[in-house]
Amino acid sequence: MPSSIRNTVKLLRIPFSFFLAPLFLFAYSQAETVVHRQALWSFLIIHFLVYPASNGYNSYVDRDEDSIGGLEKPPLPTRELFYLTIFLDVAATVLALVFVNTLFALCMVLYIGASRAYSSRQIRLKRYPFIGFLTVVIFQGAFTYYMSIAGISGGALRLDTANIFVLLGCSFQIAGAYPLTQVYQHEQDQRDGVITLSYKLGYIGTFAFTAAMFVLCNVFYYLYFTTRELGMIFYIVQVFFVPIVIWFGIWFTLVWKDRRQANFRNTMRMNWVAAICMNSCFIVLIIINRIPLSYLSSIETAVPEYGYAQETLTDFYLRSTDDLNTRRKIRIVASKTGIDKRYSVIPDFNKKPEEFTFFNRNAALMPEPTLSERMQLYQKYATALSIKAIGQIAGFENIKKSITHLITVTCTGLFAPGLDVELMRELKLNPTIERSSVNFMGCNAAILALKNADAICKSRPNAKVLVVCTELCTIHFQKRYNDDYLLSNMIFGDGAAALLVSSQPDDRYLHPVKIDGFNSMVLHNGYSDMAWQLSETGFIMNLSSYVPDLIRENIRPMLKAVGLKPEDYRHWAVHPGGKRIVDDFASALELDKCLLGPTYNVLKNYGNMSSPTVLFVLKEVLEKAKPEHSGDRIFTAAFGPGLSIETMQLRYVQA
Question: What CA–CA distance (Å, rounded) separates 2 from 7?
């Protein structure tokens, strides 16, 4: 390679881009959305075209003979260098327009213009100590962060309070670093007629000014991270800043004793220490922040068209028997359920026997509908009720093509092709959607489905999971009068819930709802106290009066075993398996029953609908969120066969 070409390439100082990379990496770590292809092109354009062109143009204009950043003995520039910088700028602009986006390209053109105005002989902003300083601080600080976000996310940075703080932090970071990089160039700049801020401050003044600027930088970074409720990230950043502070202190001591220590080699050591630490820091933040999380949104619910007062359903049950003792028991159980109304797909409960369409047309209800007849009813209504719930999700038609997974939940009916395939067909979902079903797992199956959705979102950065829970409990009404059926016939209703879980937060609720974790416990001594069994006449329900006792005795030990403290949670969404279950749950954890208001409300207005019920409760909790609830935790619990306890922890996070 001819020496002229070698020198021209050398003056581009491409390796110097390493020192300028931190703000791009910081922006990448904080961007709410990342378009990876555009982010890669943005990085390459900025660091291998724009920065080298700026370095080369500055060298061409200044014709430095003494050390400059990255080169202790720079060669003299050639005319080829000037034309190469023009080519790099044009190439950067074209590539930005073609492979990134217009906003990024516009920002880049403004950056190039500011860089040229700073160095060119015609304008020469660098000869003015304060204007030149502000140009560098703004364009290499806040503007570079803004430009990087535009390239990384494909859109403009939202200028809310937190982001204004981070822009100020970036500018003060450059405000501290820039004068320090000029501390060895005072004599060279004087010969060129340039009076820098560093020269005006003097050697000791430059160090003092740098320290002050970095303090302000840290203040705004603290405000940024705490505003976004990421205070722990701020302290992680401080760990990486420690080596920078140590070398800064050592160098300042050397310069205090001997001004000749403010030289090129010590400046480059400072640059290397700072760049290595800050690039490492922001790479760590990228790893932390780009790990996919899962967020819950858009819980919507639906019930069948037939709603019945609890008294109506009680009367229907009473008419099925002439036994006075049994009728007395039915009335006692009904009076203690805490339920005012339930819903059903069956229109018979308030009709005369001769008007029945599902049950046999006699008061005794005999013979009872067969399992086949019950499953036919389930297949007839389950899909429609599910679609009714899904249809409540705002903008579903616009987002359904982005749904990657479908999870259906049910324990009151089965058919094949199942509810999942029916929903795909009726809603015209993507035929390549990944689907699964949680079947026959009872009242806590919604949390089990959410556990699966959470795992999917944490392994797939762009996942969007639709979870649908649909139960038609009342189709299993049976003419039985043992204690299990006295209770189950008086508490169960029909309903459906649909929700979205995604790996990115949205604004559907006042605060994005992040899924923090799950915990499970199976109480084998309650194996037979809550169970379903198939029979020729439908599902046989076992629901003993010992269930509340088992939950009361085990819920606090369970939470203690996994390190959860009830006092850490201000919001509770507990499955209303029955009034006594809710009462005993509150008693066991010493909770004010007001905290379980949504649970009691759902029990009162809908009864126990099995799996979707806890989502009815959670929907009410989330819709009552207030601005001051940001950062609050939500505890969700449901109980199912086995006897099993499933819990989920959620958190309101900053948008």
Answer: 9
Distance CA 567, CA 20 (A): 47
User: Which of 36-40, 191-195, 199-203, 217-221 is predicted least confidently?
Assistant: 191-195
- The pLDDT tens digits for 31-72 are 877 888 899 999 999 999 999 998 888 878 767 666 666 666
Are 272 and 342 in a shared domain?
no
Which residue type does 244 have? I
Of 270, 272, 279, 198, the residue nearest 237 (C-alpha): 279
Number of domains in the chain: 2
Rounded CA separation 538/552 (Å): 31
Helices (H), 120-160: 129-137, 143-153
| Together in a domain, 286 and 355 | no
DSSP string, 350-390: GS-GGG-SSS-SSTT--SPPPHHHHHHHHHHHHHHHHHHHH
Q: Is the peptide bond between 643 and the residue preceding it cis, with omega within 30 degrees of 0?
A: yes
The pLDDT, as a whole number, for residue 276 is 94
Contact 513, 635 (CB under 8 A): no
The pLDDT of residue 22: 92
- In three-state secondary structure terms, 395 is coil
Closest among 565, 572, 578 to 637, alpha carbons compared: 572
Backbone dihedral angles phi then psi of residue 123, each to the nearest 5 degrees: -105, -55
Q: How deeply is 147 buried, as exposed, middle or buried, from its count of CB atoms within 10 A (0-12, 13-18, 19+)?
A: buried
> Which of the pair, 529 or 172, is modelled with greater confidence?
172
41, 66, 445, 466, 555 from 647: Cα distances, Å: 44, 68, 11, 20, 10
CA distance 548 to 526: 11
CB 648 within 8 A of CB 446: no
- Please tell me what DSSP assigns to residue 297: E
Segment 593-642, tens digit of pLDDT: 999 999 999 999 999 999 999 999 999 999 998 888 888 899 999 988 87
User: How do strand 513-522 and strand 644-652 relate by DSSP bridges?
Assistant: antiparallel
Q: Both 283 and 301 in a single domain?
A: no
Residues 519 and 647 in one domain: yes
Q: HSE (CB half, 13 Å, CA atoms) of 365?
A: 21
Same structural domain, 246 and 135: yes
Nearest to 27 by CA among 85, 87, 104: 104
| Average pLDDT over all residues of the chain | 88
| Whether pTM exceeds 0.70 | no
pLDDT at 529 over 60: no
Angle at 641 between CA 415 and CA 344, to 5 degrees: 55
Q: What local confidence, expressed as pLDDT, does residue 546 receive? A: 59
